[in-house]
Amino acid sequence: MQRSALLLLGIIVAMPNRAGAQALDTSTLVGVVADASRAPIRGAPVRLSSPQLVGGPRSAVTDGAGGYRFAALPPGRYTVAARADGFAEQSQTDIALEIAATLTVDFELAVAVVRDTVTVIARAPLVDVRRSASPTNFERSFLENLPTSRRLEDLVALVPGVVANVAYGASQGSNGLVLDGVDLTDPEEGSPWLRLNYNWVDQVQTVTLGANVEYGGFTGAVTTGTLKSGSNRFSGLGEYWTTKTAWVGNNTRELSQQLQQQFVPRTIEALRDASFQQGGPIRKDRLWFFAGLEYYKRRDRPAGFAGPGLTTQDDTHGIIKMTGALTPSIRLEGFFIGGENHLTGVGANVYTPMEATQISSQPERVWNTRLTWLVSDRTLVEVRNRGYNSPLSLDSSLPNGDDGPAPHIDVETGLASVNAWAFGRYDRRPRSTAATASHFANRVLGLSHELKFGFELEHGTSTSVTGYPGGKFYEDMDGQPYLVENWEGWKGTFTTIRSSIYAQDRWRLSERLTIDPGIRWDINRGSTPSVSNAFSTSPLALRVGVAWDLGSDHRTVARAHAGRYYDTLYGSQFELVGVDNAPVITARVTGPDQLTEISRSPFKSAQTVDPKLSQSFMDEYLVGIEHELFKNVSVTGQIVRRNYRDMIGSLDIGAEYAPVQRVDPGPDGTVGTADDGGLVTVFDRTRAAQTAVTMNLPGAFRNFTAFQLVGRKRFADKWQMLAAYTWSRTEGNFNNTFHSNARIGSGYGDPNTQINNAARTSYDTPHEVKVEGTYRIPQLGGFNLSAVYRYNSGYAWGRTIRVFDLTQGFEFVRVEPRGTRRLPAVNVLDLRVEKTFGLPKSTARLGLFIDVFNVANQGAPNPTAFRPVYEFSGSTLGRPDSWLDPRTVRGAIRVTF
What we know:
Layout: H1 2-14, E1 27-35, E2 45-49, E3 58-61, E4 67-73, E5 76-82, E6 90-97, E7 102-104, E8 107-109, E9 120-121, E10 136-138, H2 140-145, E11 162-163, E12 166-167, E13 176-179, E14 182-183, E15 201-207, E16 222-227, E17 235-242, H3 257-262, E18 267-283, E19 287-301, E20 311-327, E21 330-346, E22 358-374, E23 379-389, E24 392-396, E25 408-410, E26 416-417, E27 423-442, E28 448-467, E29 472-477, E30 480-486, E31 490-508, E32 513-527, E33 535-537, E34 540-549, E35 556-566, E36 584-591, E37 594-601, E38 608-609, E39 617-630, E40 633-645, E41 648-653, E42 656-663, E43 679-687, E44 691-696, E45 702-716, E46 719-732, E47 759-760, E48 767-777, E49 783-792, E50 796-797, E51 800-806, E52 809-814, E53 821-822, E54 826-838, E55 845-853, E56 888-896
């Protein structure tokens, strides 16, 4: 059978591939079996069982030190029992094993008084005293009960220290998303490319702090979900969700009439989300299946959208997953997800009428195959092959809209008109293969080593086509054309190849001290059709963590970690190197059919990559302590420091600027009034850029410091909770919105962008509170009461001015550093009430839901929007540009069996 497994392993490795995240979702259970005097018992049989354990219960025998170890365990609830001749059997039940955790379960066996076995139920552990990382885990009970958007990529918002998808000072685009080992992010930009319902997910772990070298390619957070796998009994779930216009409140009544009209609440013609799933055995203990289907339909008018027409979404997805035990030591599993998401009216809002919206179509095909081979009780081999095909098209809503007419946007009001601002075709076909080998070595330079060696290979080709409808884009001023960009668009095809090698050790120096040293080497290569080596970096990352078990009861651990994390390879860093596309010609509109050319950019045909470029990175330092206060309840206190450096962006080379003086018109935006400020030095471009170079932006930095207090209660005694307070400070000379640190975008070399730029970032959040939990009320057949509460300091901003009559047209110049002003704090409570019923003559249960979002109906600018507030001087200064969703009710019915 081992020859067959080796052949299968070879076939999987040889398949076409592009690597993603490594096998990071299995866990380990370890412990020592001893007698009442704490002397180790050698040769004691230990038995492990769980509904999640395909292949049936596992057995082990303790070594000379009384130790046992079960590796490659899927997350779930376990029971472990130990016995020995002359001793009473002892078992521990309801052990909640989280993703990538190592829990310690020790046994102290009592001498048997009689020959019969006596089972003692002991306390299940909560704290992982061997892990130096500090992740956030969500069990299935959390996922099923909390009122959320029910989208996997949105779960990062539940993590303490994450505000508006900004994780611990990172950029919004610096987060990873992984489902059963498949990286779901865009190889060009890094944001989530595939969006899936998490009804199919069993557990979720978000790694933010202290991650070892198995994790690469992120400087924010990585959300890892494990799919459900079925079990030895048939079970399933069916749901139906809906909401209606009458269930949407209004939180704008304190605004002016104009703003009330701007933020008119959403109206809903139809919104239905139906899903069904089932799992069970095909052959008990040997082969399980899990299958699901979801259909989502929406017809509505978005908040603020007052024009004719409705936006629509039709999204259908299905999944099938198989999990099999080929032998007691070999497990093979795989899944396939297919579907298509179609939207009309993309981008419709108060500023964008239907004529300026887009139509989107995106088919999705996702797959993964995984082989896990327990070569021996000390050696494990895993191999994965995965990927997805998902081409996205964005077309104008107008018939033949890609051919024109040209779109317009008014820089004063933000109003779009005439046509969609752009069209695009984006084809993504990543492939991946990854392999790891783990070995447990006992009594070598300390108590033990858990060595893990991994190799990853990425290879994927993507194509992007985009342009302006009609080849032009107008910027209007007070309804009249002011500037026009003439651009025929471009097509970029790029190939990314990343090879990664890493070695990670979990080195137990003593019974209580564990050190996690690791090294990771990424070899990044990117090419375009005309340049075979357009991008090349080879960063080496070192990380080390320490976990100190402070008590023999394994209830308290002190943690420390230091390490370097590099951003991943993005196609946008090099995709247009050597690509001969049309130039961008910018002209000022001086009259009807009269243009004066301002600049002629060679655009991407002249783009190059600095041969000395280094991969952008983040250095992280963590010190903390976690303690189990009492059964199922722990509290963590930790201090975090992150330094972001070597940020990558496109720098215009050859542009020349001359300083000129302009009067600050003050908040009213009008020169010559009482609120005028002093003279402001701005920069007039006297020579246009000759080329664009992707490089490490000189002097760019961002620093993050935080203190965090986190309490969690595992589900038991009818309730569970996660509560946290985070104090933090984020400052730097580039912001943490939108792009990742590895692709800031252009404009950094313009000296106007650096005026008053070294300051707090927009998502500097001095204070953040999160409380999330569920309470089971047993009366009247049972109620579930669940809530998510979020409080965080307001969005940081400062006043800017518009400077006209410059050679380049006009510039926005910051006269107040970010953080000079702040929006109101976000203070939102979301609530769910579920009534459950037992169905007659059945083990099935019926649940009726009511979700209420923004219970207090808080009205405030939405800090997660592209532009929460107008920052430039004039009549709109401080006026909200977006608004929090009002109180909204969602109803649902769920059947579980």
